[in-house]
Write a structure and sequence with these properties.
Elements (H helix, E strand, L loop, with lengths): L8 H23 L6 H21 L9 H15 L12
Length: 94
Amino acid sequence: MPANYLDQPIVLCLFGVIQVLGLISAFATRISRRSCRRSASHWVFFGCLSLVAMAAILTVGKPPGCWLTSGTTISLMVVTAVGEFGRPVRGSGW
């Protein structure tokens, strides 16, 4: 394998698929928050999160800025999965 394996089209396509799968799994986790399949979507999310993290680690030493795509995907995945975007719930008060 050449030193800069990101020149290979198949590797670039695989890299893109990993990023898209990561974002899809984050949205699926968000959607299935109140369903009976929540556990399965969490496992898929964590699997995709580790794939995106490995892609980020493998691209750190490559051409400048190559890891930014994976870093951005990781950030979006985490914010999408744990963010509360609805109206705030009011407490009962004292």
